[in-house]
Amino acid sequence: MEAGPSAQAFNRLSILSKQMLPVADAQQLSMQTCSAGDSAAYERRTTPLDEVVIVSALRTPLTKAKRGGLRDTDAIELLSTVFKAVLDQTHLDPAAIGDIVVGSVLGPSSQRANEARIASFFAGIPEEVPVRTVNRQCSSGLQAIADVAAAIRAGFYTVGLAAGVETMSSTPMAWEGGINSRISEFPKAQGCMLPMGVTSENVAAKFGVSRRTQDEFAVRSHKKAAAAAAAGKFKEEIVPVKTKVIDLKTQAETPVVISADDGIRADVSVEALAGLRAVFRKDGSTTAGNASQVTDGAAAVLLMTRREAIKRGLPVLGIFRSFAAVGVDPAIMGVGPAAAIPAALAQAGLTTDDIDVYEINEAFASQASYSIAKLGIDESKVNPNGGAIALGHPLGATGARCTATLLHEMRRRGRAARFGVVSMCIGSGMGAAAVFEAGGEVDNLMNARATTGPNTQLSRDAVFDGICDVAGSSQSIIAKDSVHLCSAVLHQS
């Protein structure tokens, strides 16, 4: 039986109310009538000191594999650069890090694990700090963040470093070894072997995403990225990389500093993209112009408890609220965000309308367009600074890169952006999503929607009706749809 409006409202307020319970070392909490709009059912005045927050999120430039400025830079240099930049920015004693988790997809597993460990030494991190890798394909960087957040919540440590890296110039996508012959007996398993471009074609065909729709989406990605780069929006998140480039003919090495993404094409047009041939099917619609770029890059995100951030005097860039990974049909793996985003939002007690900014990985224009349309998301909220079609998709780093881009964009918007989502599809048929909240303790009503009638000082989850005693004052509050939660929730605090 499908839950009705009353049950949905009850579930939403039940989740949100957990954040209002008394916490150690915090002042008395109170609920007041507010105009916080759809972002929350209350205005938060104090916060739990054990919640997981992000205090730094940085990335290298993203450059074209084989041709870009990082083509001759190995994973060690990429990772050590972002590790050191995070430490320099926060002035954190590296010995305080409880663990380092690095997302990576293509690098040989044992080799990449050693490279991550070596990179930590290059960055001045002591031997006592452990390192490991994680591989959930395109969501590996986001999975690394979720793993660190989960470990902090579990009390394993209070400070952790999550990262992602991919050097697609040196480790291109390829299947190693043979295939189990029993795969012919399992149709879903066969879908795991489809090239990603074929799954894009499957999404386009199954859900009617036209070639023109895909090309128009790709053009918008480049235009937004070009505008963001011109406005200097990426400077806060990009760490320049001191490296070298090797001349392909002479093998001469030239020292360089790479400080900008090199895949953005400001002059791209729908007409130009229309002239490109389909890559994966003769009569298909997926081209090199409306698919993500093959890319080199790395990113790192420093997480800790709010208590640690306060103790160290570090400003909070964002709060980690929820994470979900879900499975979908491998043959149409691109629909992953359409399944994962609702799951992550449900964990956070939110809906798509509550989210101010989305970073949805543009693996292919077909799947990104479908996911946005399926969820009914206003596209103006999605990838406001462009996505992987323009910036690139270094597989293991993408989740961490998207998180950095999201949190810096939310900070620029101030209190007009409270909640953000990072999501992507995942090869072999999965999707992942995480919800982040802006770092400030108080939503200063800047994102409130206009309301009508007498209830202009309440969130959408409440209307005037009954009497609720709040910190000694009488206020008429009853939950939307006559779900009588107010008294029960408030008397817990």
Descriptive overview:
The strands form four sheets. Strands 1, 2, 3, 4, 5, 8, 9, 10, 11 and 12 form a ten-stranded mixed β-sheet that branches. Strands 6-7 form a two-stranded antiparallel ribbon. A two-stranded antiparallel sheet has the order 13-16. The chain has one domain (48-171, 186-435): Thiolase/Chalcone synthase (Peroxisomal Thiolase, Chain A, domain 1). It has helices spanning 5-17, 75-90, 109-122, 140-154, 187-191, 196-207, 211-230, 270-274, 306-311, 336-348, 365-375, 388-391, 398-413, 486-490; strands at 52-59, 63-64, 99-103, 131-134, 159-167, 241-246, 253-258, 295-305, 318-327, 357-360, 419-426, 430-438, 462-463, 468-470, 473-475, 478-479. It has 493 residues and is α+β, with helices and mostly antiparallel strands. It is globular. The longest helix is centred in the middle third of the chain and has 20 residues, at 211-230. The protein starts with a helix and ends with a helix. Belongs to the thiolase-like superfamily. Thiolase family.
